[in-house]
Amino acid sequence: MEHHTHHAHGEHGEHGHNHGTASASWPMAAQATLHCLTGCAIGEILGMAIGTALAWHNAPTMILAIVLAFVFGYALTMRGVLRAGLGLRSALRVALAADTVSIAVMELVDNGTLLLFPGAMDATLSDALFWLSLALSFAVAFAITTPVNKWMIGRGKGHAVVHQYH
C-alpha cells in the first residue's frame, strides 16, 4: 500500500507536469465543476430540508447547508480516491486540495444568488420559487466556478490533483 501511494505520487508529478495551461480544457473544467456541484447540491438541499423541518431561521439553515455542501463535496472526492487505494488521511488531503476553492466559490456564488433572488430566502421546500431560485443559483454558480476550475487545473491545482486516481 505504501509503495502504491509512493508510486502514485511519482505519477502525479509527471501527470501534473502535463497539465499546463493549454491542456486544461473546458470539458475537463466543466466535469470538475459538475462533480463539485453534485456534492454542493446534495449538502445544500439536505441542509435546507433539515433547517426547514426544524423551523430554523435563514442564517442557521444556510450555515448548515454550506457545511453539508463541503462535507458532501469532500466525501464524493474521498470515495473515489479511497477506491484507488489511498489511505483515509491521504484521501482527505487530496479532497481538501482538490475541492476547497471550487466548493468555496460555488457556495459563495450560489448563496449570494439566493440572497439576491426576491423571496427565495422565505420560500419553503413545497414552493416552486424555492426550487426555481435554487436551480438558478446552481446554474450561476456553475457558470462562474467553471472558469475558476479551468484556471486551477491549468496550473496543476484543484481538481488536477485528483486526476491520477481516476
Looking at this protein, list some descriptive labels.
disordered N terminus; single chain; 0% strand; 166 residues; 5 helices; mainly alpha
Give structural notes:
By secondary structure, this protein is an all-alpha fold. It is built from five helices and no strands. The two termini are 17 Å apart.
Shape: globular
Question: N-to-C SSE series?
Answer: HHHHH
Q: Which bin fits the share of residues in helices? A: over 70%
Number of strands: 0
Mean residue pLDDT: 86
How large a portion of the residues is in β-strands, by DSSP E? under 5%
| Category by helix and strand content | mainly alpha
Task: Tell me the Rg in angstroms.
Answer: 17 Å
Q: In whole angstroms, how far apart are the ends? A: 17 Å
Largest sheet, if any? Answer: none
Low-confidence stretches: 1-22
DSSP helix count? Answer: 5
